[in-house]
Amino acid sequence: MDFMTALDIGASALSTERTSMNIISMNLANAKTTRTPEGGPYRRKTVVLQATEVDHPFSKQMQTAMDRDLRGVRVKEVAQDKRPLKQVYEPGHPDANEEGYVFYPDINVVEEMANLMTVQRSYEANISSMDAVKTMYNKALELGRG
Protein backbone atom coordinates (compact mmCIF):
# COMPACT_ATOMS: atom_id res chain seq x y z
CA MET A 1 0.00 0.00 0.00
CA ASP A 2 1.39 3.39 -0.91
CA PHE A 3 0.75 6.47 1.15
CA MET A 4 -1.80 7.83 -1.34
CA THR A 5 -4.02 4.79 -0.75
CA ALA A 6 -4.05 5.51 2.98
CA LEU A 7 -4.97 9.13 2.25
CA ASP A 8 -7.72 7.99 -0.17
CA ILE A 9 -9.20 5.75 2.50
CA GLY A 10 -9.11 8.59 5.04
CA ALA A 11 -10.63 11.02 2.54
CA SER A 12 -13.52 8.65 1.80
CA ALA A 13 -14.22 8.43 5.54
CA LEU A 14 -14.13 12.22 5.93
CA SER A 15 -16.61 12.60 3.09
CA THR A 16 -19.08 10.15 4.63
CA GLU A 17 -18.72 11.71 8.08
CA ARG A 18 -19.52 15.11 6.58
CA THR A 19 -22.68 13.67 5.02
CA SER A 20 -23.63 12.13 8.38
CA MET A 21 -23.15 15.47 10.13
CA ASN A 22 -25.36 17.19 7.54
CA ILE A 23 -28.14 14.61 7.97
CA ILE A 24 -28.00 14.84 11.79
CA SER A 25 -28.14 18.63 11.57
CA MET A 26 -31.14 18.37 9.26
CA ASN A 27 -32.88 16.03 11.73
CA LEU A 28 -32.25 18.44 14.62
CA ALA A 29 -33.46 21.43 12.59
CA ASN A 30 -36.69 19.64 11.67
CA ALA A 31 -37.48 18.07 15.07
CA LYS A 32 -40.76 20.03 15.29
CA THR A 33 -41.64 20.30 11.58
CA THR A 34 -45.25 19.31 10.99
CA ARG A 35 -45.55 20.34 7.35
CA THR A 36 -43.20 19.48 4.47
CA PRO A 37 -43.45 20.11 0.70
CA GLU A 38 -44.12 16.37 0.25
CA GLY A 39 -47.01 16.60 2.70
CA GLY A 40 -47.20 15.54 6.32
CA PRO A 41 -44.56 15.89 9.01
CA TYR A 42 -40.81 15.59 8.49
CA ARG A 43 -39.42 12.06 8.59
CA ARG A 44 -36.12 11.38 10.36
CA LYS A 45 -33.31 10.37 7.98
CA THR A 46 -30.33 8.08 8.49
CA VAL A 47 -27.16 7.47 6.47
CA VAL A 48 -26.39 3.95 5.20
CA LEU A 49 -22.68 3.37 4.57
CA GLN A 50 -21.03 0.84 2.28
CA ALA A 51 -17.43 -0.38 1.88
CA THR A 52 -15.96 0.49 -1.51
CA GLU A 53 -12.75 0.13 -3.44
CA VAL A 54 -10.44 3.12 -3.44
CA ASP A 55 -8.26 2.58 -6.51
CA HIS A 56 -8.56 3.19 -10.23
CA PRO A 57 -8.96 0.20 -12.58
CA PHE A 58 -5.38 0.41 -13.93
CA SER A 59 -3.71 0.47 -10.54
CA LYS A 60 -5.99 -2.37 -9.49
CA GLN A 61 -4.16 -4.65 -11.93
CA MET A 62 -0.80 -3.74 -10.39
CA GLN A 63 -1.76 -4.45 -6.78
CA THR A 64 -0.64 -7.33 -4.67
CA ALA A 65 -3.21 -9.66 -3.16
CA MET A 66 -2.89 -8.00 0.23
CA ASP A 67 -3.60 -4.53 -1.17
CA ARG A 68 -6.83 -5.70 -2.84
CA ASP A 69 -8.48 -6.11 0.56
CA LEU A 70 -8.18 -2.40 1.32
CA ARG A 71 -11.53 -0.64 1.33
CA GLY A 72 -12.77 2.88 1.75
CA VAL A 73 -16.30 3.88 2.58
CA ARG A 74 -19.05 5.75 0.78
CA VAL A 75 -22.65 6.73 1.39
CA LYS A 76 -24.90 4.04 -0.06
CA GLU A 77 -28.14 5.90 0.58
CA VAL A 78 -29.95 8.36 2.82
CA ALA A 79 -32.85 6.34 4.19
CA GLN A 80 -36.01 7.49 5.91
CA ASP A 81 -36.54 6.19 9.40
CA LYS A 82 -39.65 4.01 9.79
CA ARG A 83 -40.47 5.02 13.37
CA PRO A 84 -44.08 5.99 14.00
CA LEU A 85 -44.83 9.69 14.35
CA LYS A 86 -45.45 11.26 17.77
CA GLN A 87 -49.07 12.20 18.30
CA VAL A 88 -49.60 15.27 20.54
CA TYR A 89 -52.94 16.77 21.56
CA GLU A 90 -52.87 20.44 20.47
CA PRO A 91 -56.34 21.45 19.26
CA GLY A 92 -55.27 25.06 18.47
CA HIS A 93 -52.41 24.02 16.15
CA PRO A 94 -53.04 24.76 12.42
CA ASP A 95 -51.99 21.20 11.48
CA ALA A 96 -54.22 19.50 14.06
CA ASN A 97 -56.62 16.87 12.75
CA GLU A 98 -60.33 16.85 13.50
CA GLU A 99 -59.69 15.21 16.88
CA GLY A 100 -57.14 17.90 17.85
CA TYR A 101 -54.00 15.80 17.45
CA VAL A 102 -50.82 16.98 15.71
CA PHE A 103 -48.26 14.53 14.30
CA TYR A 104 -44.60 15.38 15.00
CA PRO A 105 -41.47 13.59 13.76
CA ASP A 106 -40.11 11.05 16.26
CA ILE A 107 -36.74 12.75 16.70
CA ASN A 108 -34.99 12.39 20.05
CA VAL A 109 -32.63 15.34 20.45
CA VAL A 110 -30.43 13.45 22.94
CA GLU A 111 -30.04 10.54 20.49
CA GLU A 112 -29.18 12.92 17.66
CA MET A 113 -26.58 14.72 19.80
CA ALA A 114 -25.01 11.37 20.78
CA ASN A 115 -24.85 10.41 17.10
CA LEU A 116 -23.32 13.81 16.30
CA MET A 117 -20.61 13.32 18.95
CA THR A 118 -19.84 9.84 17.56
CA VAL A 119 -19.49 11.24 14.05
CA GLN A 120 -17.29 14.06 15.35
CA ARG A 121 -14.96 11.60 17.11
CA SER A 122 -14.75 9.45 13.99
CA TYR A 123 -13.95 12.53 11.92
CA GLU A 124 -11.17 13.48 14.33
CA ALA A 125 -9.77 9.93 14.29
CA ASN A 126 -9.60 9.97 10.50
CA ILE A 127 -7.84 13.35 10.55
CA SER A 128 -5.31 11.90 13.02
CA SER A 129 -4.65 8.89 10.81
CA MET A 130 -4.14 11.13 7.77
CA ASP A 131 -1.75 13.33 9.78
CA ALA A 132 0.22 10.22 10.80
CA VAL A 133 0.52 9.17 7.15
CA LYS A 134 1.73 12.64 6.17
CA THR A 135 4.29 12.62 9.01
CA MET A 136 5.58 9.20 7.94
CA TYR A 137 5.90 10.39 4.35
CA ASN A 138 7.80 13.52 5.39
CA LYS A 139 10.16 11.44 7.56
CA ALA A 140 10.80 9.10 4.63
CA LEU A 141 11.67 12.12 2.46
CA GLU A 142 14.08 13.40 5.11
CA LEU A 143 15.80 10.00 5.16
CA GLY A 144 16.15 10.16 1.39
CA ARG A 145 17.90 13.55 1.56
CA GLY A 146 20.66 11.96 3.62
UniProtKB/TrEMBL annotation:
Residues 100-143 form the Flagellar basal-body/hook protein C-terminal domain. The basal body constitutes a major portion of the flagellar organelle and consists of four rings (L,P,S, and M) mounted on a central rod. The rod consists of about 26 subunits of FlgG in the distal portion, and FlgB, FlgC and FlgF are thought to build up the proximal portion of the rod with about 6 subunits each. GO terms for cellular component: bacterial-type flagellum basal body, rod. It comes from the Bacteria. Pfam families: Flg_bb_rod, Flg_bbr_C. InterPro entries: Flag_bb_rod_N, Flg_bb/hook_C_dom, FlgC. Belongs to the flagella basal body rod proteins family. This is Flagellar basal-body rod protein FlgC. One of its GO terms (biological process) is bacterial-type flagellum-dependent swarming motility. Its main location: other. Signal peptide: none annotated. The gene is flgC. It is found in: Bacterial flagellum basal body. Keywords: Bacterial flagellum, Cell projection, Cilium, Flagellum. Residues 7-34 form the Flagellar basal body rod protein N-terminal domain.
